[in-house]
Write a structure and sequence with these properties.
about 400 residues, alpha+beta, six-stranded antiparallel beta sheet, two-stranded antiparallel ribbon, 10 strands, about 45% helix
């Protein structure tokens, strides 16, 4: 079998077999899903390039792509559009995020049958906005009142959602238990279910974090995302003191994929969940209220509320509207640079002044775009090889 197939298999070694099968199936759907599920290839292939070594380090998302932007409600009750996945966050040259995001635009456009010239244009729009914002050194945020165009209508729509909407989707009619649908929520072994409920209720009772004053009464295994499929993830049905139901997400935290390839010294953490929650709290303008780390059976998890406002843009609906797409990726460029600026000067990160200076480098934009275009073409070849191995039965649970 191909070297690529072996690299992918080795990276995913140790993940839950049944859920890992779902990941491989998702990766086979199109080249963009493959790109999302194979972040490790990006670091393995590119870590020696000068572009990813000589620029200042700041806190990065670590897996920046268009699907890792979305809506959520901040602690201040406003609904934001921003980067919303920090599982791979680490201290590294900002060029890693900029290049991966630019590559994702090219690949997503190909998956949506957008012509090559338009894809290149959108990549340019993103990079211009990103580098321009970095050079100015002033972060921006986007919430319902400051959004324009498609983001304004999107945020206005999600802001109207209520907790009862997500409860209705995921729970039984009387909201007494989680709905086991075999797609998004899977049943747990009874002993594991009892253990999870006992331990989290014990933690809630002794926790100093008053925001988690709930009682958990049901739990299921949760299926979500692409890259993280195969990791342990749970959804809890809880009730607040006033009797209202709240859903909690508990996701196993793993070391960031790119850490072994990054030369920048990393801070010391109690566990990777602390790293994820801390980074999110600084890279977002206003993080959600319920976000913390949780230790269960010698493993760290990120614990947060499942919000009805959590959503993503359906790019397929606007893929033929270059004006709307251009405005959207422009805002993503601004938000990406803003997140990097917010992380500057913290726990070993370069200062904002250093990032601003790097943003004025005249060759940076060209190098980023060329790297994105070249690596997007390589991903097409990788995807073809992966599909051949997948249909040939190489990626099975027994492997």
């Amino acid at each position: 079998m191909s070297q690529l197939a072996q690299r992918i298999q080795q990276f995913n070694k140790g993940r839950l077999p049944d859920v890992l099968d779902k990941k491989y199936t998702a990766m086979s759907q199109d080249v963009f899903r493959f790109f999302r599920g194979s972040n490790h290839l990006f670091y393995e292939d590119l870590h020696q390039l000068p572009l990813f070594q000589k620029y200042p380090a700041t806190w990065i998302c670590g897996d920046l792509h268009i699907e890792n932007f979305g809506s959520y409600k901040g602690d201040n009750k406003l609904v934001y559009f921003d980067i919303n996945d920090f599982d791979e966050a680490m201290l590294a040259p900002f060029t890693w995020d900029a290049a991966r995001m630019a590559t994702s635009i090219i690949i997503a456009c190909r998956a949506m049958n957008v012509v090559a010239d338009d894809a290149a244009m959108l990549c340019s729009v993103f990079l211009d906005a990103y580098i321009g914002t970095l050079a100015r050194g002033k972060s921006r945020h986007i919430e319902k009142e400051t959004a324009r165009g498609i983001l304004e209508s999107f945020l206005c729509k999600v802001a109207m959602r209520k907790t009862k909407d997500i409860i209705k989707q995921r729970c039984t009619k009387d909201a007494s238990a989680l709905r086991i649908d075999g797609v998004k929520q899977l049943a747990l072994d009874n002993s594991e279910k009892i253990s999870l409920l006992e331990q989290i209720n014990k933690w809630i009772n002794v926790s100093e974090d008053s925001r988690y004053r709930f009682h958990a009464k049901d739990v299921a295994f949760r299926i979500s995302g692409t890259g993280s499929l195969g990791q342990k993830r749970y959804v809890f049905l809880t009730t607040r003191n006033d009797g209202k139901p709240v859903l909690l997400d508990m996701k196993q935290s793993m070391p960031p994929t790119g850490a072994q390839w990054i030369k920048t010294p990393q801070p010391s953490w109690k566990g990777d969940a602390e790293r994820i929650a801390w980074t999110q709290s600084f890279m977002q303008d206003e993080p959600p209220a319920l976000l913390t780390s949780y230790y269960y059976k010698k493993q760290w998890y990120v614990l947060k509320a499942l919000q009805p406002m959590d959503d993503k843009i359906n790019y397929n609906l606007i893929a033929t509207d270059m004006r709307a797409m251009s405005a959207l990726v422009n805002e993503m460029g601004v938000l990406s640079a803003s997140a990097h600026l917010r992380g500057s000067g913290r726990k070993g990160a370069a200062t904002a002044d250093e990032l601003m200076s790097a943003g004025t480098n005249k060759t940076l934009r060209k190098t980023l775009q060329e790297t994105a275009m070249t690596y997007a073409a390589k991903m097409e070849t990788y995807y073809s090889d992966f599909c051949e191995a997948y249909t040939g039965g190489f990626f099975t649970a027994k492997k």
